[in-house]
């Protein structure tokens, strides 16, 4: 493994006998050519104070699952430098807001765009929105879209994307808000790799003062999982239905837990709520933090279908606007 230059202390492990006991470095790189996957557990004992990174030539689903189960990171060798840059630079602290829905069609795109619009308006921030729901491009709010995630994919694969190129590829939605919709073809959803998504978000953090990722509701893609891992604030969007609660519990047990995401750190947005005043009680059953409740507006999607500025109709609803302002205020206070 090539020597890695960093201002942070790094231990590079290339053989079964090269890891000193009780290493407490900030990051430990382990080369798969020197230590096989089956031998890793023995080697990382006593390294709980370190960040373990297993460096491989190829990432498989099995390797990814094994690493997640044991609290390690797994990175391709050709993406190691960009990975280290991402986790150990100042932009790592820059805010990334992730919105995901417990079920499909719960309005994550609408909420992400509305929050970005309100943040840009109230704070003057430049906000970039990444459509990382790979099963739905989220283009209904964006007219005359010329670029989607598909169009920047080659730049991700070749590591040739720059913050400037990314910004130029995104659509200006309103003053201070840029948007890159998801891919046109959902059949390509499983082809995106974690390091490509990490590279995309890293560039977005350099291009904008704040990044919002629209995750969608299907958490089986690298885009969705990497977005949740890199987010500084995670918002789950749900209805007040038992099936939503059960779905969230399933996600928390089998997905969030493996990503080391604690439900107590997740913020709840109730959307299409039948009883918005029950948000607090609903949050308690999910062990999350309530932020805002948006009532159901069943006729609004029909009215807005042919409108060029759909958000204008949503913001005209007093309770919708109040909920978005609550979300923005919660972020502003956290920041």
The overall number of domains is: 2
CA-atom Rg in angstroms: 21 Å
Instruction: Give helix % range.
Output: 25-40%
The number of E-state strands comes to: 12
Low-confidence stretches: 1-8, 16-25
* CATH topology group of the largest domain: Rossmann fold
Name of the CATH architecture of the largest domain? 3-Layer(aba) Sandwich
What is the element string, with H for helices and E for strands? EEHEHEHEHEHHEEHEHEHEHEHHH
What is the CATH C level class of the largest domain, in words?
Alpha Beta
Distance between the termini: 39 Å
Average pLDDT for all residues: 83
Tell me, briefly, the overall form: globular
- What percent strand? 15-25%
The main β sheet shows up as: 8 strands, mixed
DSSP helical segment count: 13
The strands making up the biggest β-sheet line up spatially as: 7-8-6-9-5-10-11-12
- The chain-level structural class is alpha/beta
CATH 4th-level superfamily of the largest domain: P-loop containing nucleotide triphosphate hydrolases
Q: Care to describe what's here?
A:
- This protein has an 8-stranded mixed sheet, sandwiched between helices. A 4-stranded parallel sheet has the order 1-2-3-4.
- It has 2 domains: 10-87, no CATH class; 90-334, P-loop containing nucleotide triphosphate hydrolases (Rossmann fold, 3-Layer(aba) Sandwich), CATH 3.40.50.
- It is an alpha/beta fold and 335 residues long.
- Helix content is 38%, strand content 20%.
- It starts with 9 loop residues before the first strand and ends with a helix.
- It is built from 13 helices and 12 strands.
- It has helices at 40-43, 61-69, 80-87, 108-123, 149-157, 163-169, 194-207, 222-230, 242-256, 279-286, 300-304, 310-315, 318-334, and strands at 10-13, 27-31, 51-56, 73-76, 96-101, 127-131, 171-174, 177-180, 210-216, 233-238, 266-273, 289-295.
